Each structure stands twice: as structure tokens, then as C-alpha cells.
User: Fold Multidrug efflux SMR transporter from Saccharibacillus sacchari.
Amino acid sequence: MNAYVFLAVAIVSEVFGSSMMKLSNGFKRLAPSIAMVAGMGLSFYMLSIALHAIPLGTAYAIWSGVGTVLTTLVGVLLYKEKINAKKALGIVLIVVGVVIMKLATN
Assistant:
């Protein structure tokens, strides 16, 4: 299987885990706490598999950058968190940085 598929699963799992972290209410709610640990565990496992074929710096930049963007979108769409121009600019810069990292590995 393509390493980028493993990386994509790692990203989605991390975003899920982060969302569950918010719902866990500081680990006071059992089901979201278990889901957070499972999501993060799967994320790190899939990231470790992706690292067999993708350089560490590139994989981590993509994992953290795309994860940050998606987690921000989840916060805005599901949790009604506010986004302003500065935050939007930050997201754009993260995406640009991830694209540059990916282009630098080719």
C-alpha cells in the first residue's frame, strides 16, 4: 500500500483523536477519552508505517500541517469556534509550508 495512504489515515486518526480530546472534558468522560487514546494510538502507528517510505521531515510536516488545518475546520464547523483573518492567514501559511516541504522531497 502507498505510504501516503498510511499518512492520510494517520492524519484523519489524529484529527479524530483531537476532537475526542475536546469531548472528553479533561478525561472526565470515559467514552471520548477511550476514543481519543485509540485515535492517537492509530495515528502514531500509521505514521510510523508511513515513515518507512517518506522522509521524517516531510511526513511530519504533512501530518502536523494537514492535521492542524483539518482540526481547525472541525473546531469551526462542529464546535462553532471563531476564526479571524490572522488565524486564516496562519492556516494559509501552514498549507504553503506543507506544499513546499512536499515539493522539496521530489
Observations:
- DSSP finds four helices and no strands in the chain.
- The CA atoms of residues 28 and 87 lie 30 Å apart.
